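Bug #77: duplicate submission created two jobs. Keeping one. Sequence:
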Amino acid sequence: MRQTVAAIAAEQAADGALPWFRGGQLDPWDSIEAAMALDVGGEHARAAAAYRWLAARQRPDGSWAAEYRGGAETSPAVESNHAGYLAVGTWHSWLATRDEALVAELWPVVRRGLDLVVRMQLAGGAVGWALRPDGTPDGTALLTGNASLFQALRCGIALAGLVGSPQPDWELAVTDLGTALRTDPAAFADRSRYSMDWYYPVLAGAVTGEAARARLAAEWDRFVVPGLGARCVADRPWVTGAETCELALALVVAGQPEAAREQVAAMQHLRHGDGSYWTGLVYADDARWPVERTTWTAAAVVLAVDALSGATPASGLFADPAALPAPGTVDTPGSAAPLPGSRRP
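Kept job's structure:
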């Protein structure tokens, strides 16, 4: 894993940008996932640089572009999952490092992003996936993105408790969103052929316990290829490393660590000699596709291994989502007073 973290770090630009690979595209969600892996590997300065790069590019409305290349916006679309995910990275960084200064620095950025997410919430509790050109939320909600936002809002609530700035609107939003994720499948676009829609509600902690185990068992044969990992799409002979390791995280949450270890082991055929990971394999043709080794694939491996091993204080974020504060309880252990530099409203 140290070698894999070094491979991620090698793709980072001098200004802190953390793209898919050096010279390639950067999107906020995947960049944050890669930054979390850097913190797991002890590369805190690099992780902080990646977060600061994003913070410097946040728009006034709390959003980011969907894609950057060379620091420039190449896809200006506003997507809700990008707006929210810095909350997860910042809380993960706090758990890993207890860097109070970085939390205080990023808190206003996190707050603007999650405030935008709340503004994009639809009447039934789901969150629109994007903003229309007129600034109103698109009425389409995506299940994977909403599950990620469920985790992001809960991390934001934890950060709010840490800095002493309660956000009751977030608590209401995450309660309604959790209800939609658990009880209203019709609220989300039908993308059931994608494995992420299968496991992500479990990974993010919206579906837990026996319901989580039943959900994973129901589609297991549809998505899992024995000995190779998980398909990205049910009807394609294509296994991908990130989806396999995210499935492993969901299995840890569901209390099935041995099955999780099997999946992490199964996808090691994607490992390159320098510790990086190929994105996927079209197993019908025995061909790597796409022909790229992405930082976010490597990061998913690192986060899964950390969750399984408990190697860092941040491992519990993905191993035990129940440890996050429940809606209505913003205080976290050791957070009775706000961090230095913060203030209560």
